[in-house]
């Protein structure tokens, strides 16, 4: 096979269905909207785990909040026949992520586990990934953030504190995945067990609406959940191929 | 030749142009001082603050992560267009009326590109790492991402800025030589260096013409591609109202449009304040006016198409983007743009209007204000209304941003003022080409020879 | 090699070292803080930033008593998660619980004992030693006790359970005082009273949401703030999509849609205070359709005769067909469950309303079975409720204080200056008390008025134990242990009380040297009693096992037979609610609700929660007043318009939030903001609606009818930006949150691992 053939062959296969078969994991999450109560426990859990800054009222008013996972809310109908629907929105870890193609310095790329990763110290802050992301889950560090002493003692040592000018977003708690892989290796296991690793949001969800796992394992909770007839992806028409799958809310009156 | 320079002699050309370089009145120093002061105060000072504080000094937010810096970037790239591009096209079509104005137009290209490049630095979050966007070998073995339209942009602008610089420099060599021969002291040394030993031999003229034409041919597609690529920064996203195939021609036309208007402005200023009345004449304004009219019609058509395709898509997100553009928060800006860029240029139908200097100046400035607005709206309205309604937001520029925009204008003026004192701002040898040969003496060496 | 003198050599070496040192220091000093952390993209294999240590303890952010696991590293608290073995939280936690580290590391914590040096409220405090502080208080107590005026001492605490509650009891008793008050704004007095009347016990039952198929909730925001939100959410999730064959249906009846209302399949707005009438109408229909065939059927028919669906429909504003539909579904879908609380219990007819809700459970046979209402056995340790002070009790206290009958007030954790309406005159009454001692960890509004502040540890630094109330159907206990060494010169609440006790020679009744001893002693008794899931010979191994697991439970549950006394049936009936203020002058009913994020204001000093969007409105960092779009339009108001909300007892100002799911004549406000003190994150932010509540009481319990205040609204013509995240709250047909028909239920086999009710 000539070099050119190898190149074209690799290019053709790149991130097409089946690409991840070569790798060990393909992390995915399902969110059951019929269970989600919108309580926002996940939001605080994420903030605690990932060293998200407290931006303050002024910055919040300017639209500069930092929430890797947020709850979107949509009202339907008018009083008295009115409904409020919640949907947790986080990085969808798209397999065809628009944000990855646009970064001029490859600061965001797809890793072998199917994660859309952000390399903070490579990022130069063009913010184009945030423009290209249709889910609007990328958050920019508009300035350096302060923690009033001694709040900084809570910071998670496994997660970097980001400086000004850097884009950040949900990582599926990659530090936990890493740790789980290390544990598996220490135990002489080749693979991480289903349920052994959970991102902070999934871990805390009081209604158990979030499920996380390896979708390459057909018996994992997340694989079964993804095969649920209620499964759908948000903005599926954009063909971003997200790794976050939502389960439809059941609309049953009375 | 149907120009008004007929009563001029070769010596007059030299005298006038070199005077503009050598003789400097207090007016110039005041202008330069003011421009430089404004640049420092309005551009570099707020920028330093922004570097210290972070991009948060600007008004950008989520979802409005791109703002006036990017709009300014497109604006300046656009403004750069008509200079070199126009010059090349006219050179290739042997339009003689170009000759008096092309040098300053090309300078405009160069300086707008420089200002645009500065805006890239202003725009990014960590400009101290901007070199990572360049493909150079490094110990990290990291390449930039060649799939990124932003990287296409880096390449395109890099090429364009290189091409334009060579083009303007090469075209100036005979004039540098002319100035060299008429100055003394440090100027003489500087121009000796710049003219690279030009002697004005036939071979030199021949090669200059060949190379100049070659570059002209090369730069035309480059100029078109530059702005197409700038448009891809937007069109390759999937943001409603940005994800459009019309964007490349839209940007190119818009660029030439605003660039042409920019040339009108610069020519007016040169004419008025540098005493080039005899070189830059009504004919130039007349022709540029016609060009503006044609461009405005194309531009208006593309705007119409943009609205139509948005409506035709039938998608809620596209409809909302349209609605927001026409009637939303930024709607006054939209209608201002329509008034300045689609309606006002229709005045150019009248030849009396085209040949009146002050109205043309006002029109050209209005068009560029409108075109700036267009760039701002492209960035601002689309990002404000994307797919997830819960994430909608509004972006309002901060004082720092507005100051930097004003400062960038001053930076451009500063660069231009320095330029007119170094480079002959009217191409002497080409103006002479348009003139009758000197009468009193028999023709010895027609152009550029030492006097 | 040039000649270098020894001196020159030394000079060079010296200068060189200084230079290198200075250079290094300069380099370090200009580094971004980020660079001091580990900037690896992928850390080397053998690289570890440290090893986590997890401790199991108990969350004290609200009264639910969730078990938590705290992740610490190098002695610092990093993260709090639910304790998977604890039956209440089962590994899960709410936003409030997650924010726990910010209580510990709050920059506004009190760092040591203080004494007020200026006027009360002037904020002039001087640092004192613990010895000085304790002696000062103990001397005063000693004097009073000697003069047999011990009853002039009052210990006013937040609700505490476990052996700390017992410690308080004994301490106050030893002083010769009867004044041990536990005051919490959110304590469900009416629910306790209703259960007392109906079931004859001062204990809440376990509401088995997990196994229910049909839930009828009357005003109880069980997912947001009512009793045990985490546990209810677990049950909700399981009921919804955790069972292969059935999906639980949920109906919420309340005047303003709460978090639970949004989660419900159907939200029904009934006029405030008429929830009980609605419950009785449902009961009436159940009887008239013959769903209930018990022996006492005739009594029920007699007592419910006046509550026909048509009549109640007129009073509640809920159509008769809806009531019928609810009643049919409630009776026919088994097991079903009716719960009541929250705003429904906070009316002048609160107890009657909740009794009516209990009656519904009785009539369809939901008592004592899975998926219904399960009776809790005797808790394993001391609980608090006998000392819970109602609003009336607090008024009595205020009256006593005014008369000069209170000489020492010891405040622990509770903040009545903030959580009592200004009409109660609590702050003014404090002026009459010669010595006020606060044991709070923060300078809240009440602590700011204290003379001596003996700051206590946060819950993450102290020993304690907890017996969740309501339990989960079987006895559960949990030990709370320090997970981080004390950050400041503070002491555990129990240790402060013990310190006072030692100075007062109470060693025979309070023999413990520390709270740890006290807890251990208490648990020794539990160990001796036997039973439970930890069975070891020695106490030490038992203790270690309990500490490691963080929880201890007994696998017993109570017999579920229940017979209803006829007199209870005869007493059933719900009066129309009473509101203070004439409806002409005050056209709106104020519906204050506990904030999901800030609870009753106790969490307002935690920046994570200040910055956490309110689930329903997405507003952060402030107060707002919710009104129906029609009402707002009628008043010419839009979002962000500042309005004055005036009750007969005060006036506050807040921006309008147009809320699609609230009755047109009701306006709602979240409780939690409006602190005048309580640290930098809480201070001067928003308003406190408790302030303007009318002192309307539920007559049977004396609890505050907090939903029974009428108000009027005047536009001020000014505007204030509401800080919030939501851009557009309608999805414009973009189908972002997709739904499917009821028939499309599918088994999502990811159920909760722990069984609460042994089946």
Folded structure, characterized:
The complex is a heterotrimer of chains A (254), B (451) and C (759). By secondary structure, chain A is α+β, with helices and mostly antiparallel strands. Chain A contains 8 helices and 11 strands. In chain A, the strands form 4 sheets. A 4-stranded mixed sheet of chain A has the order 8-1-10-9. A two-stranded antiparallel sheet of chain A has the order 2-3. Chain A is globular, with a radius of gyration of 19 Å. The mean pLDDT of chain A is 90. Chain B has 451 residues and is an all-alpha fold. Chain B has one domain (23-127, 145-433). In chain B, 69% of the residues lie in helices and 0% in strands. Chain B is built from 15 helices and no strands. In chain B, helix 5 (149-182) packs antiparallel against helix 7 (202-235), helix 7 (202-235) crosses helix 8 (247-273) and helix 9 crosses helix 10. Chain C is globular, with a radius of gyration of 28 Å. The chains are: A alpha+beta (254), B mainly alpha (451), C alpha/beta (759). Chains in contact: A-B, A-C, B-C.
Descriptors:
heterotrimer; A: 254 residues; alpha+beta; two-stranded antiparallel sheet; 8 helices; 11 strands; C: 759 residues; alpha/beta; Rossmann fold; Dimethylsulfoxide Reductase, domain 2; Barwin-like endoglucanases; 3 domains; seven-stranded mixed β-sheet; six-stranded mixed β-sheet; 23 helices; 16% strand; globular
How is the topology of this model organized?
The complex is a heterotrimer of chains A (254), B (451) and C (759).
Chain A (H helix, E strand, L loop, with lengths): L2 H11 L13 E6 L8 H9 L7 H5 L8 E7 L6 E7 L8 H5 L5 E3 L5 E3 L9 H5 L6 E2 L26 E2 L5 H13 L13 H5 L5 E5 L6 H6 L4 E2 L11 E4 L1 E3 L3
Parallel strand pairs in A: 1-10
Antiparallel strand pairs in A: 1-8, 2-3, 4-5, 6-7, 9-10
Chain B lengths: L9 H13 L3 H28 L14 H25 L9 H22 L25 H34 L2 H10 L7 H34 L11 H27 L8 H32 L2 H12 L3 H13 L7 H4 L2 H28 L14 H22 L7 H6 L18
Chain C lengths: L5 H24 L3 H4 L16 E6 L8 E7 L2 E7 L12 H4 L2 H4 L9 E3 L8 E3 L2 H17 L6 E5 L5 H13 L4 E3 L6 H11 L6 E2 L6 E5 L10 H13 L7 E5 L5 H5 L2 E3 L6 H14 L8 H7 L5 H8 L3 H13 L3 E5 L9 H14 L9 E2 L16 H12 L5 E5 L3 H4 L6 H5 L4 E4 L13 E2 L10 E3 L9 E5 L12 H11 L11 H15 L9 H11 L2 E2 L12 H5 L17 E7 L12 H4 L14 E3 L1 H6 L6 E7 L2 E9 L7 E6 L37 E11 L19 E3 L18
Parallel strand pairs in C: 6-7, 6-14, 9-10, 9-12, 10-11, 14-15, 15-16, 20-24, 21-23
Antiparallel strand pairs in C: 1-2, 2-3, 4-5, 4-16, 8-13, 17-18, 18-19, 20-25, 22-23, 22-25
Helix pairs in contact in C: 5-18, 6-18, 7-14, 10-12, 10-13, 10-14, 12-13
């Amino acid at each position: 096979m000539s070099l050119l053939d190898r190149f074209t062959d690799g290019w053709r296969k790149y991130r097409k269905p089946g690409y991840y078969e070569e790798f060990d994991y393909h992390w995915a999450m399902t969110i059951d909207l019929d269970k989600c109560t919108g309580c926002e426990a996940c939001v605080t859990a994420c903030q605690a785990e990932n060293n998200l800054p407290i931006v303050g009222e002024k910055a919040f008013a300017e639209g500069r909040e930092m929430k890797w996972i947020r709850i979107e809310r949509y009202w339907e109908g008018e009083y008295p026949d009115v409904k409020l629907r919640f949907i947790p929105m986080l990085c969808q870890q798209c397999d065809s992520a628009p944000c990855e193609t646009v970064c001029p310095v490859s600061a965001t790329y797809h890793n072998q586990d199917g994660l859309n990763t952000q390399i903070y110290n490579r990022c130069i802050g063009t913010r184009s990934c945030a423009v290209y992301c249709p889910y609007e889950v990328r958050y920019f560090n508009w300035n350096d953030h302060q923690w009033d002493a001694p709040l900084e003692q809570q910071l998670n040592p496994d997660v970097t504190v980001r400086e000004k000018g850097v884009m950040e977003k949900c990582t599926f708690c990659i530090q936990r995945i890493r740790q789980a892989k290390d544990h598996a290796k220490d135990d002489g296991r080749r693979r991480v067990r289903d349920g052994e690793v959970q991102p902070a949001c999934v871990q805390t969800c009081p209604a158990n609406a979030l499920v996380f796992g390896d979708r390459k394992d057909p018996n994992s909770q997340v694989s079964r959940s993804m095969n649920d007839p209620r499964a759908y992806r948000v903005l599926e028409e954009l063909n971003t191929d997200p790794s976050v799958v939502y389960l439809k809310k059941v609309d049953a009156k009375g | 030749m149907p120009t008004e320079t007929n009563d001029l002699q070769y010596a007059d050309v030299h005298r006038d142009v070199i005077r503009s370089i050598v003789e400097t009145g207090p007016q110039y120093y005041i202008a330069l001082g003011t421009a430089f002061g404004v640049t420092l105060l309005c551009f570099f000072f707020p920028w330093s603050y922004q570097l210290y504080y972070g991009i948060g000094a600007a008004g950008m937010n989520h979802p409005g992560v791109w703002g006036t810096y990017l709009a300014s970037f497109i604006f300046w790239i656009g403004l750069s267009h008509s200079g070199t591009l126009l010059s090349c096209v006219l050179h290739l079509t042997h339009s003689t009326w170009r000759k008096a104005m092309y040098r300053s137009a090309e300078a405009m290209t160069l300086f707008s590109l420089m200002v645009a490049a500065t805006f890239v630095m202003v725009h990014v979050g960590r400009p101290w790492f901007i070199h990572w966007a360049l493909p150079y070998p490094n110990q990290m073995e990291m390449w930039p991402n060649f799939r990124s339209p932003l990287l296409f942009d880096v390449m395109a602008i890099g090429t364009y800025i290189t091409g334009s610089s060579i083009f303007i420099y090469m075209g100036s060599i005979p004039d540098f030589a002319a100035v060299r021969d008429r100055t003394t002291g440090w100027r003489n040394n500087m121009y000796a260096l710049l003219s690279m030993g030009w002697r004005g031999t036939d071979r030199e003229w021949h090669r200059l013409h060949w190379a100049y034409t070659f570059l002209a041919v090369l730069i035309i597609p480059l100029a078109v591609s530059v702005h197409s690529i700038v448009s891809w920064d937007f069109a390759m996203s999937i943001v409603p109202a940005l994800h459009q195939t019309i964007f490349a021609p839209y940007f190119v036309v818009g660029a030439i449009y605003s660039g042409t208007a920019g040339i009108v402005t610069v020519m007016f200023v040169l004419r008025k304040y540098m005493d080039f009345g005899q070189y830059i004449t009504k004919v130039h304004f007349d022709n540029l006016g016609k060009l503006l009219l044609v461009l405005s019609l194309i531009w208006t058509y593309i705007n119409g198409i943009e609205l139509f395709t948005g409506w035709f898509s039938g998608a809620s997100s596209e409809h909302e983007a349209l609605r927001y553009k026409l009637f939303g928060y930024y709607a006054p800006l939209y209608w201002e743009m329509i008034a300045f860029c689609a309606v006002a240029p229709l005045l150019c139908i009248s030849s009396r209007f085209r040949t009146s200097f002050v109205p043309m100046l006002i029109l050209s400035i209005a068009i560029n204000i409108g075109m700036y607005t267009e760039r701002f709206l492209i960035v601002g309205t689309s990002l404000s209304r994307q797919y997830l309604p819960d994430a909608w937001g509004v972006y309002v520029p901060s004082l720092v941003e507005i100051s930097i925009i004003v400062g960038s204008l001053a930076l451009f003026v500063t660069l231009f003022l320095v330029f007119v004192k170094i480079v002959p701002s009217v191409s002497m040898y080409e103006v002479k080409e348009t003139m009758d040969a000197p009468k009193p003496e028999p023709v010895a060496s027609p152009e550029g020879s030492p006097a | 090699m040039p000649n270098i003198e020894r001196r020159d050599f030394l000079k060079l070496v010296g200068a060189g070292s200084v230079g290198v040192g200075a250079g290094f220091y300069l380099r370090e000093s200009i580094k971004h803080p980020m660079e001091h952390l580990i900037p690896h993209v992928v850390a080397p294999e053998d690289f570890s930033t440290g090893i986590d240590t997890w401790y199991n303890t108990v969350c004290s952010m609200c009264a639910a008593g969730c078990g938590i696991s705290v992740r610490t590293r190098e002695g610092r608290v990093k993260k709090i998660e639910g304790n998977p073995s604890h039956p209440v939280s089962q590994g899960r936690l709410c936003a409030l619980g997650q924010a726990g580290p910010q209580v510990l590391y709050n920059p506004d914590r009190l760092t040591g004992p203080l004494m007020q040096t200026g006027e009360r409220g002037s904020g002039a405090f001087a640092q004192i030693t613990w010895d000085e502080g304790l002696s000062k208080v103990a001397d005063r107590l000693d004097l009073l006790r000697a003069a047999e005026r011990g009853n002039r001492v009052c210990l006013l605490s937040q609700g505490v359970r476990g052996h700390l509650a017992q410690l308080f009891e004994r301490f106050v008793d030893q002083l010769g005082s009867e004044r041990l008050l536990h005051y919490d704004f959110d304590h469900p007095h009416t629910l306790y009273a209703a259960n007392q009347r109906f079931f004859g016990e001062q204990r809440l039952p376990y509401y088995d949401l997990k196994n229910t198929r049909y839930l009828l909730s009357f005003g109880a925001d069980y997912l947001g703030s009512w009793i045990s939100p985490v546990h209810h959410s677990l049950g909700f999730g399981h009921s919804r999509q955790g069972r292969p064959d059935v999906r639980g249906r949920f109906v919420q009846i309340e005047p303003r849609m709460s978090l639970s209302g949004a989660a419900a399949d159907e939200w029904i707005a009934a006029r405030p205070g008429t929830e009980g009438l609605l419950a009785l109408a449902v009961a009436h229909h159940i009887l008239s359709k013959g769903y209930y065939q018990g022996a006492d059927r005739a009594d029920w028919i007699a007592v419910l005769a006046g509550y026909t669906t048509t009549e109640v429909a007129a009073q509640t504003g809920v159509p008769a067909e809806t009531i019928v539909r609810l009643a049919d579904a409630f009776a026919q879908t088994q097991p079903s469950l009716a719960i009541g609380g929250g705003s429904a219990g906070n009316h002048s007819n609160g107890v009657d309303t909740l009794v009516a809700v209990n009656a519904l459970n009785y009539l369809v046979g939901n008592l004592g079975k899975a998926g219904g209402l399960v009776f809790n056995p005797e808790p394993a340790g001391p609980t608090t409720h006998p000392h819970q002070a109602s609003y009336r009790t607090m008024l009595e206290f205020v009256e006593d204080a005014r008369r000069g009958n209170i000489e020492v007030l010891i405040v622990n954790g509770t903040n009545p200056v903030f959580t009592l309406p200004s009409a109660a005159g609590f702050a003014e009454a404090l002026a009459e008390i010669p010595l006020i001692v606060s044991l709070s960890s923060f300078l809240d509004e009440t602590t700011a008025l204290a003379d001596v502040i003996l700051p206590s540890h946060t819950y993450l630094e102290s020993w304690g134990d907890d017996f969740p109330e309501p339990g989960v159907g079987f006895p559960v206990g949990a030990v709370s242990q320090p997970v981080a060494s004390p950050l400041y010169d503070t002491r555990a609440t129990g240790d402060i009380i013990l310190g006072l006790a030692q100075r007062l020679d109470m060693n025979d009744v309070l023999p413990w040297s520390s709270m740890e001893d006290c807890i251990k002693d208490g648990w020794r008794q539990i160990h001796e009693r036997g039973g439970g899931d930890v069975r070891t010979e020695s106490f030490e191994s038992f203790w270690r096992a309990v500490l490691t697991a963080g929880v201890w439970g007994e696998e017993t549950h109570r017999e579920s037979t229940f017979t209803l006394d006829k007199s209870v049936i005869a007493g059933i009936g719900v009066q129309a609610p009473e509101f203070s203020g004439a409806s002409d002058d005050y056209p709106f009913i104020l519906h204050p609700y506990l904030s999901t994020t800030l609870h009753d204001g106790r969490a307002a000093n935690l920046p994570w929660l200040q910055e956490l969007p309110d689930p329903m409105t997405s507003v952060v960092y402030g107060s707002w007043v919710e009104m129906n779009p029609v009402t707002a339009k009628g008043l010419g108001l839009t979002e962000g318009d500042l309005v004055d909300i005036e009750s007969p007892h005060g006036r506050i100002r807040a921006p309008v939030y147009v809320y699609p799911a609230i009755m047109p004549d009701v306006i709602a406000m979240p409780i939690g903001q409006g602190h005048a003190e309580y640290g930098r994150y809480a201070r001067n932010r928003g308003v406190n609606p408790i302030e303007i509540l009318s002192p309307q009481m539920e007559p049977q319990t004396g609890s505050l009818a907090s939903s029974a205040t009428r108000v009027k609204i005047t536009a001020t013509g000014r505007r204030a930006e509401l800080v919030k995240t939501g851009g557009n709250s309608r999805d414009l047909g973009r189908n972002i949150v997709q739904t499917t028909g009821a028939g499309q239920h599918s088994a999502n086999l990811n159920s909760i691992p722990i069984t609460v009710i042994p089946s």
